[in-house]
Each structure stands twice: as structure tokens, then as C-alpha cells.
């Protein structure tokens, strides 16, 4: 697999996902390395994952899963975790409200790098990519441009959110067309701990569901990636 080292000429990153635990399926291991190197990383969750546990009502699941996300983020050195709260787990739609909400966060955080999940219809290996993931991934791509245009969502300026055109890179994880890699061999254990923090969610998936270590190993330790490190996270990186 012909991959390039992930860009290092940035200082601040915003990682955006639809649900608690989305970032923990690989990206968190890369985040652990970035924060250890002194880079500033924050998370934005579009929902609180309230529809994600069949045996738990949304009213119970939302605070439980939000706390699991905070706990998982702390394992990899992230202490800022924000939630949009205007969108409902399972029925997130790509559109102007979502683009504006993400653009507002980009203006507030002013990142050099924005990371999210692929908006492709399937994951590598053929699994179907969930609808919320697809909506959020595409909205992130659009919002990176929206954030820099004062004539789009110009009511944000009245809220004190001036345009931000400083997003240099947009990275999509779990893509079938990766362009860059991060060797996460040294931060793999932090990535495992980050996913393990989602205990209530993982327990609800049943005893036959693979453990966090098994899952992340299957994603990150493959023969195709061995030339880049023992364990590797990949992403499609677009330069803006």
C-alpha cells in the first residue's frame, strides 16, 4: 500500500464524529501520539449516542455514553469534548443546520487539521457505513469551507465567531482510499484503553463481540500495512 507519513506541520486539531465511540475505533491511537507531542486536540460529537444501546432508554443512554466519551478522550490526552445536542442519534441528516453547527465549532476552535470518519457508503472489507457517519463526514468536508466564508452562515459573526480559513488538512479515517498513515505502535495501548472506556456500550453488544484489543489489532496490524509499522492508523488526507 503506497502511503505517505501523516502531515506534521500543524498544531491544533478538531476531531468530529457522529457518536461516542466512533473516534475510538482507531483514530484515538493517533490522537494519543499527537497530544504526547504537544499538539492540541479537541473532540466534537454531533449526538450523545442515545439510540445506541437497545436495552437502555435514550434518556439514560445519552448521559452514560457522553461520560464514556469523556473518559475515553482522557485516556489519549484530550480534555475538551463538546456535544452539539441539536441532532438526534440515528436520524442525523446532511444539510445546512449540520453544516452550520460544525462550521461554528471550527470557527470557535480554529484548527489546522480536522479529522472525521469517511462518508463512503461502505468500509474497507464491505461493511455498510451507518447513515449518521455518512451525513457527518460529508458535512465536515463542507463545513471546513463554510467556516472561512463570512457570507455563509453570517449570523455566526453576530455570535462572535469570525471566519476561520486556517484548516489546512481534512482527514477521513476508515476509508477505502487512504493516502497517509500514522505509526501507532507506541500509542496502541492508549487507543485500546480509550475504546475500553465505552464499557456500557460494548457490553450491550454481547459476549460474542470482539474485544477492543481484538478489534483494533484487526484494523491496525495487517500485512498490507506492515512496512509502515507494527500497528498503523490510516486516513485519506485532503489538503486545502
From TrEMBL:
Keywords: Zinc. Pfam families: PIG-L. This is PIG-L family deacetylase. It comes from the Bacteria.
